[in-house]
Amino acid sequence: MLGHHYTHTFLETAVASVNAGCNLELSYGTRNNVFMHIPQALAMGNITLQMLRDRVRPLFYTRMRLGEFDPPAMNPYSSLDLSVVQSPEHRNLSLEAAVKSFVLLKNVRGTLPLRARDLSGQRLAVVGPFADNPWVLFGDYAPVPEPQYIYTPRRGLEMLGANVSFTAGCSKPQCQWYSRAELVRVVGAADMVLVCLGTGVGVETEAKDRSDLSLPGHQLELLQDAVQ
């Protein structure tokens, strides 16, 4: 609310939020958060002790239901490790969710999906800053990537037994430095080319908006060179 000029100080924001029924702050710091001013608001009479108790009660009720105050031995999730989280059943479910979430905008001549039996003897070129970089494949508010569990386009195609050549063209989504010669060399020898482009959180994320939808840096040039 402060950033939108609805209030002028953290104290005013705390008062307005609590009075409006907000009982949880998504804080961006640890020393001077908005709700750290609640004691001052209470002392000034801007909010009442009963109101504060009413706001806190559902928070602790929820935390109790989640078992946050139980001994760890009582929490069945405490015993889970990567052998469970990364079990074949969970990985297959993640794969199914990923496959069903794709949006195919155009599929000329039924090119997709690529099948292993159709790739035998084919030379594939996988190019672009998103072709083999697991760190840029996640959006905002995603968990910390674990590369060993991430299948980039290059890694996935290699698992199909395809003859894959690769070049990023530019190492980061910003694509400020672009190696056209390397791209032309890899693409020129291929029967099929997959160009992997995008933005990623290094280019746009919460509080980092862009004024247009164009591909960043030299990515458009990379795409045009691959098509040419």
UniProtKB/TrEMBL annotation:
At the top level of its lineage, which domain of life is listed?
A: Eukaryota
Keyword Hydrolase belongs to the record: yes
Q: Which residue numbers delimit the Glycoside hydrolase family 3 C-terminal domain?
A: 103-226
Membrane-spanning parts: none
UniProt keywords (A-Z) are: Glycosidase, Hydrolase
Entry keyword Cell wall biogenesis/degradation: no
Q: Which processes are annotated in GO (biological process)?
A: arabinan catabolic process; xylan catabolic process
Q: Which Pfam families match?
A: Glyco_hydro_3_C (PF01915)
Q: What would be an example GO MF term here?
A: alpha-L-arabinofuranosidase activity
Output the PANTHER family linked to this UniProt entry: FIBRONECTIN TYPE III-LIKE DOMAIN-CONTAINING PROTEIN, SUGAR HYDROLASE-RELATED
The protein's name is XYL2 arabinofuranosidase
Q: Which species?
A: Edolisoma coerulescens
